[in-house]
Design a protein that fits this description.
Helix content is 63%, strand content 2%. It has 217 residues and is mainly α.
Length: 217
């Protein structure tokens, strides 16, 4: 364990502080403790990553898993404090945001064309029922106004009309289409974080001598 304390103490502290700012009802030390528990309960996974992955890839995997552990813990503890069930949460997936952004950015109040394909609540009701789509639109619009202006500009270029390609975004910014995609991805991540963060994934430890994949809950 000392090996991980020495090598990942800074990362654990940084993530704990970041999530305590996002979930201000929770203490950074409690989040930090939960992240160290992750190291204790994922020995097989850590051994496999250290054996079969480069230092860069291993650190990316650990960073991703620690953020997932922080998100899962904070979501659960916030639900306890405020008094609701975690299963009642709605996670904003990129697909639903991409459906709404062109209408939000052009100030149109039509129901997005593909919105019926996106589930809203665990009871399988869809976004277009009743006034639910208006609530979703309001959430996304408010989150968009809260993110950094550089992210707003990138999303406006990409989704400000119904047919803007990454090539067009790249041309506007004088960068490659691949670099434009990365900027759009970063902006989308900032927007999802503002909306409460991504859906946590299942992160069980590997069984001995057997690989396992992280899957969505």
């Amino acid at each position: 364990m000392q090996h991980y304390l020495d090598n990942y103490g800074g990362l654990v502290t940084h993530i704990s502080y970041e999530y305590s700012k996002r979930y201000q009802m929770l203490d950074a030390d409690d989040i930090k403790q939960e992240l160290w528990v992750w190291f204790i309960t994922h020995n097989n996974k850590l051994n496999e990553w250290e054996t079969n992955h480069s230092e860069k890839d291993k650190n990316k995997l650990i960073n991703r898993s620690l953020r997932n552990a922080a998100q899962k813990y904070c979501t659960k503890e916030k639900a306890k404090v405020i008094g609701y069930e975690v299963q009642d949460l709605f996670y904003y997936e990129p697909a639903i945001i991409e459906e709404f952004l062109p209408y939000i950015l052009t100030e149109s109040y039509f129901i997005p064309i593909g919105v019926n394909d996106v589930n809203y609540r665990p009871n399988r009701s869809v976004v277009s029922e009743g006034n639910t789509w208006l609530a979703v639109r309001a959430d996304i619009s408010q989150a968009y106004e809260s993110i950094d202006e550089r992210h707003q500009n990138v999303l406006r270029l990409r989704f400000g009309s119904l047919s803007t390609s990454l090539e067009d975004v790249g041309n506007e910014l004088k960068i490659s289409a691949d670099a434009a995609r990365k900027r759009v991805d970063r902006a989308m991540k900032a927007l999802i974080d503002e909306l409460g963060g991504p859906r946590p994934f299942v992160d069980n430890d590997y069984k001995k001598s057997q690989d396992a994949e992280q899957t969505q809950e």
